[in-house]
């Protein structure tokens, strides 16, 4: 096995006295694990930070063997780890990705979306500039893994206009008219989440995060995988305190 590709570092676990097992996301080969010799050294610790983009090279003699991985830093997000909100966003996005995706399966749209989200976190002057992208990333991940929400048409009427709510049971959109009398049982649907773009207020962003959080917890992050949700809770709590 020999693979050479750009990759986003997702998770790093100490192995032995000096090494580390690293999981990184490639565009065409999905999540790839590898053993980095000296991965806990002073030289490599700054390289092996979740969110960093590296040039990775994996080598193994057999398919059953954990590959040896060498890395070269391409882009670092190290300065952002000193900023609580940005650091929490990076921690959640990478933890979600490594927990949700099976190893060795290509998810090019997830790779591109994660790279875009991390770029937005790096570039945006405030959290409002990337929080909407985070919700859209969660929505894409649900769709890529077979738990997509049907936000293009009303579940009751079949029409695509005046969509204002989401059913917490089916994940389908509901129009304002069809929701009359049942609004308190439904989740508000912000327009930016359905359209995939546009400006979003904080109310819209938190509404979107409530939707994606509901279905991540119900459908994707179950059993032991639910442990990773604590990182999301910390992030959402920090966002709420930042805008209070």
Helix content: 25-40%
Largest sheet: 5 strands, antiparallel
Radius of gyration: 19 Å
**Intertermini distance:** 51 Å
**Strand neighbour order, sheet with most strands:** 3-2-1-4-5
SSE series: EEEEEHHHEEEEHHH
* Whole-number mean pLDDT: 94
Could you explain how this protein is built, in words?
The chain has helices spanning 84-100, 108-123, 128-144, 191-195, 202-220, 229-243, and strands spanning 2-15, 19-26, 30-36, 53-59, 68-75, 150-154, 163-166, 172-175, 187-188. It is α+β, with helices and mostly antiparallel strands and 244 residues long. It has a five-stranded antiparallel β-sheet. α1 packs antiparallel against α6 (229-243), α2 (108-123) runs antiparallel to α3 (128-144) and α3 (128-144) runs parallel beside α5. It is elongated, with a radius of gyration of 19 Å.
Fold topology:
Layout: E1 2-15, E2 19-26, E3 30-36, E4 53-59, E5 68-75, H1 84-100, H2 108-123, H3 128-144, E6 150-154, E7 163-166, E8 172-175, E9 187-188, H4 191-195, H5 202-220, H6 229-243
Parallel strand pairs: 6-8
Antiparallel strand pairs: 1-2, 1-4, 2-3, 4-5, 7-8, 7-9
């Amino acid at each position: 096995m020999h693979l050479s590709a750009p990759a986003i570092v997702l998770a790093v676990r100490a192995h032995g006295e000096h090494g580390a097992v690293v999981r990184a996301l490639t565009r065409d080969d999905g999540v790839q694990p590898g053993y980095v010799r000296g991965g806990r050294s002073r030289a490599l610790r700054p390289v092996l930070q979740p969110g960093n983009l590296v040039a990775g090279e994996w080598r193994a003699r057999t398919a059953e063997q954990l590959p040896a991985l060498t890395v070269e830093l391409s882009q670092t997000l190290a300065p952002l780890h000193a900023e609580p909100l940005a650091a929490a966003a990076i921690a959640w996005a990478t933890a979600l990705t490594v927990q949700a995706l099976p190893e060795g399966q290509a998810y090019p749209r997830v790779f591109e979306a994660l790279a875009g989200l991390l770029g937005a976190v790096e570039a945006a002057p405030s959290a409002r500039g990337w929080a909407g992208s985070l919700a859209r990333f969660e929505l894409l991940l649900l769709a890529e893994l077979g738990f997509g929400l049907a936000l293009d048409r009303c579940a009751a009427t079949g029409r695509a206009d005046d969509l204002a709510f989401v059913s917490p049971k089916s994940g389908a959109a509901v129009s304002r008219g069809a929701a009359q009398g049942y609004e308190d049982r439904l989740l508000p649907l912000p327009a930016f989440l359905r359209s995939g773009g546009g400006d979003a207020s904080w109310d819209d962003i938190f509404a979107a995060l409530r939707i994606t959080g509901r279905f991540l917890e119900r459908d994707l992050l179950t059993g032991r995988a639910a442990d990773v949700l604590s990182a999301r809770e910390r992030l959402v709590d920090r966002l709420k305190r930042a805008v209070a």
